[in-house]
Structures are given as structure tokens and as C-alpha cells.
């Protein structure tokens, strides 16, 4: 059973439409896929329509941008109620903060001599509803300033870089509580990737369990073998679920092929059961036969 619980469509910063992403996952032999676009549920309907026909089970999720002790932390939220007003208001606030910062980043780039306009960005970002630094990176590639997204981050867009502009994000414990209140299952994405290890040590994770944290995404390409071993031991000690996933971004992120990292069926079952027990109206959809 191949289960991939973290992927992006072009609704955020992936490159395939939600429907094409679901079909690609089925074609790649996956049995279950979670769509977890950044800070939005906008892709859920299209992905749901595609899942039954493609022959795959769909887990509807979100990757929420949060902050913990000054550090950006991504929180995967599975099977939340999209009608929960509090969670939706918080997502709206995050997306508004993303929109506000784009002109500021383009302004910085122009000060650095790069002819980056909002019109050009809109062309590159296409129909995405959540703009992010990867879109600005694509613009830099399009303009021939850098060869790829990674170079754009290294030279301009990484935290503290010359064109970096910060944005609003909820506090991690608050976001965890909100996901639970919305019936969902909160799992920290790539907890020890890109700098967040410093604020997510064993003690910090134990406190987050008190806030309602349900799991850790241990099997992610950002983690090496030693980190996975250590995170797995922490998860076991704290009674946390352990997930694994590709964090697929289409052609936007090389090496993160669909299904390259996977989650155990028992863990998906626990996620589905937890959401149901919390009264969430959202559950697995699509071709669920044999998955749970
Ligand atoms: P944003 O959400 O707009 O702040 O952009 C963050 C996203 O950019 C993350 O979800 C990653 O997919 C990507 N990203 C962040 N840092 C880097 C980096 N150093 N190199 C390549 N991609 C990155
Ligand atoms: Zn992303
Ligand atoms: Fe992430
Ligand atoms: Fe992601």
C-alpha cells in the first residue's frame, strides 16, 4: 500500500492542477494521496472530483504556515472541517499577508536591478490562489536572472536574503489547537528541515503534544537517517503518529517524486478515525476500497 500524505498543486506552489496531480498519483501506483496546498482548501473540490475516477483515495489537507519562537514552522492539517469559521478566518489572514508581501518583494528586486513587475509575476503564477516565494523564484528564472528555484532562494529569497520580506503567520500552538477545534489532525511537516530543528527539540515537541499535536512527518527528504531515527524515537516516546511523504511540488522541486516517501496504512487509519471521533465532516474520499 503506497500512501503519500503531503503534496502541492498549482493552487499554491506546485505545478499541476489538483485534478492532474491526483491522476498523476494514481498513474504512479499510489493508493492514497493527501493534497496539502499551503494555507488553502481551494483545491479540494477539483481533487475530490478526480479521485474516484482516477482510482485513488484522497486525504484533504492543508499545510499551514505558522511561527514558533521566531522560526517558520509548517503544520499539516488533515481532514479539517472547511466550514469551521475560526480556521477559515486564520487561513484568510495568512493568505492576505502573502498577497501583501508580494509587491514589497518585487520592489526589493527592482532596487537590486531586477525588472520584476506584478504583471510578469501574475503571468508566471498563473491561476494559483496562494502566492509564495516559489512564484517569485519562477519569475527570476523566467527573467534569466537565475537557473532554477533553488538558486533564486540561495541568491535572493531565503529567510534574511536580499529580497526576503516576512509575513503574518499564527503561533504554532494556536494553529494546532485551531486544527483540533476544526476536527482535524495536526502533524508537523519536516520538523527538522531548514532551521526549525533549533525550535523543535524533544522538550518543545513534548509541550506541543499538550497543545494537541498528533504527529510528526519523520520520513521527508529534508531529514537524514540519523535525524529520522531520533525523531522516530521522540514520536514513540510522546505517542505521536509518524508520517512520511514526498512534499511533491510538480516540476517545481526536483527529487520529490510522488510516493518517494510513504506513510504506513495504520497511521492513515488513525488519522481518519481521529477526525471522525472529533466530529469532522471531512473524511477520505475517492476510491477508498481497501485503503482503510
Ligand atoms: P513562502 O511560503 O512564500 O514563504 O515560501 C516558502 C516555500 O518556499 C516553502 O514551502 C518551500 O517550498 C520553498 N522554499 C523555502 N526555502 C527554500 C529554499 N532555501 N530553497 C528552495 N525552496 C525553498
Ligand atoms: Zn511549497
Ligand atoms: Fe513545507
Ligand atoms: Fe510542502
Quick overview of this protein structure:
This protein is α/β, with parallel strands linked by helices and 292 residues long. It has helices at 18-27, 44-54, 85-111, 118-125, 133-142, 149-157, 172-181, 202-211, 225-238, 265-277; strands spanning 3-7, 32-38, 57-68, 71-78, 185-188, 215-219, 241-244, 285-286. It has two domains: 3-91 and 168-286, Alpha-Beta Barrel (TIM Barrel), CATH 3.20.20.140; 101-157, Orthogonal Bundle (DNA polymerase, domain 1), CATH 1.10.150.650.
Which SSEs are present, and which pair or pack?
Elements: E1 3-7, H1 18-27, E2 32-38, H2 44-54, E3 57-68, E4 71-78, H3 85-111, H4 118-125, H5 133-142, H6 149-157, H7 172-181, E5 185-188, H8 202-211, E6 215-219, H9 225-238, E7 241-244, H10 265-277, E8 285-286
Helix pairs in contact: 1-2, 4-5, 5-6
Bound molecules: adenosine monophosphate, zinc ion (ZN) and fe (iii) ion (2 copies).
The site of adenosine monophosphate has 10 residues, from helix 5 and helix 6.
| CATH C-level of the largest domain | Alpha Beta
Oligomeric organization of the protein chains? single chain
CATH topology of the largest domain: TIM Barrel
Quote the beta fraction: 15-25%
Using only CA atoms, what is the Rg? 18 Å
- Tell me roughly what share of residues is in helical segments: 40-55%
Give every kind of bound small molecule, once each: adenosine monophosphate, zinc ion, fe (iii) ion
Number of strands: 8
CATH homologous superfamily designation of the largest domain: Metal-dependent hydrolases
Described by strand count, sense and barrel closure, the largest sheet is: 8 strands, mixed
User: What class do helices, strands and sheet pairing give?
Assistant: alpha/beta
CATH architecture of the largest domain: Alpha-Beta Barrel
How much is the average pLDDT? Answer: 96
What is the domain tally?
2
What sort of overall outline do the alpha carbons produce when their principal axes are compared?
globular
Low-confidence blocks of residues:
none
Number of helical segments with 4 or more residues: 10
Amino acid at each position: 500500500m503506497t500512501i503519500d500524505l503531503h503534496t502541492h498543486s498549482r493552487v499554491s506552489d506546485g505545478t499541476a492542477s489538483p485534478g492532474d496531480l491526483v491522476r498523476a498519483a494514481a498513474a504512479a501506483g499510489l493508493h492514497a494521496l493527501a493534497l496539502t496546498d499551503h494555507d488553502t482548501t481551494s483545491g479540494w473540490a477539483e481533487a475530490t472530483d478526480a479521485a474516484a475516477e482516477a482510482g485513488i483515495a484522497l486525504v484533504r489537507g492543508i499545510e499551514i504556515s505558522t511561527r514558533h519562537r521566531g522560526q517558520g514552522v509548517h503544520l499539516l492539517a488533515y481532514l479539517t472541517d472547511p466550514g469551521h469559521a475560526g480556521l477559515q478566518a486564520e487561513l484568510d489572514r495568512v493568505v492576505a499577508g502573502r498577497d501583501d508581501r508580494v509587491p514589497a518583494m518585487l520592489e526589493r528586486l527592482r532596487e537590486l536591478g531586477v525588472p520584476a513587475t506584478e504583471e510578469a509575476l501574475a503571468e508566471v503564477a498563473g491561476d494559483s490562489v496562494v502566492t509564495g516565494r516559489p512564484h517569485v523564484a519562477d519569475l527570476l528564472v523566467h527573467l534569466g536572472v537565475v537557473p532554477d528555484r533553488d538558486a533564486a532562494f540561495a541568491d535572493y529569497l531565503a529567510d534574511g536574503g536580499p529580497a526576503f520580506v516576512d509575513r503574518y503567520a499564527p503561533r504554532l500552538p494556536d494553529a494546532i489547537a485551531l486544527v483540533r477545534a476544526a476536527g482535524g489532525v495536526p502533524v508537523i511537516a519536516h520538523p527538522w528541515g531548514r532551521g526549525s530543528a533549533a525550535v523543535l527539540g524533544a522538550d518543545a515537541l513534548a509541550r506541543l503534544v499538550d497543545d494537541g499535536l498528533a504527529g510528526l512527518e519523520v520520513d521527508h527528504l529534508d531529514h537524514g537517517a540519523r535525524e529520522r531515527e531520533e525523531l522516530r524515537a521522540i514520536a514513540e516516546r510522546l505517542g505521536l503518529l509518524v508520517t512520511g511523504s514526498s512534499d511533491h511540488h510538480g516540476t517545481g522541486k526536483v527529487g520529490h517524486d510522488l510516493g518517494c516517501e510513504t506513510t504506513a496504512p495504520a497511521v492513515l487509519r488513525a488519522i481518519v478515525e481521529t477526525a471522525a471521533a472529533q466530529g469532522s465532516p471531512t473524511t477520505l474520499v475517492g476510491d477508498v476500497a481497501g485503503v482503510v
